[in-house]
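input
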Amino acid sequence: FPVTIALHADDIWLRINSLLKGIKVSTNSRYNKDPITIKSSQLEKLVSKMFRKAEMISSLEISSTILNLASSKIIVMNKKQKLIIGITAEGSVNLLRGQLKYFKDRGYDTYLMSPDSLRVQEFCIKEGCTHLSIKIEREISLFKDIKTLFQIIQLFNNVKPEIINFGTPKVSLLGMIAGYLTRVPFRIYTCRGFRFEHEKGLKRRILVVMEKITSKLAHKVICISPSLEKLAVNLQIVDAQKSLVIAKGSSNGVNLSLFKPLENDNPEKCIDLKKRFDLQDKKVIGFIGRVVDRV
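output
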């Protein structure tokens, strides 16, 4: 497809929506770049076909798709682009395994914004990213939330990221507000679920409003399942044109090697177990998760 400016091949994911629309896009004023025009006639069919055929999605594809989402603003420059991924609870690093390393390997300066902990420190070392420590409460706490908001604003002003991708409700709300105020060029909200689904009364209404603000300030909203996207659109939390489900839906893909530990490390024991439980030539699928009625 014709492109009017030289781009790194690995960065093409970042341009998909803009390429599809052939729109004029302006870089952020901090880089003093002129607007450019990028056009494409084939990429939409290619991407749609790829997603339709995907039966099992990997964390690699999740990461690749995140890069495809810069739909309204493109940063064109020679220096490395900066990406910040944010989470509310330090335990949520389990939802991000492989993502920051993927970006790092493709030339991005990567940052994880989260509360500090030994688990987070080990994660950042393994992923090769810089940790941006924040103090944040999971529950609604107006004074502490305002304090955290100013902390995030200060970090954004210091780092000057081109892309932010925040998931989990509280940090996403504060991150999108801070990103809007500091003019972060592209803001992604990864919606992994809604806290208000099991709430009632005033608290539910407050949580719904929080989600609407978060989605409004994001350029794109990744919903991790079709049912979640449907609920978000039906409740007018997310504009259908702004939302996206990656392939069949997933939070961070599936690392298939985790499901074959014996085959990889002890094939003889694996064969013995299959014989003992009469599982030769059979598939065994286990699932642990929360079941939510969204019918």
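quick obs: The chain is about 40% helix and 15% strand.
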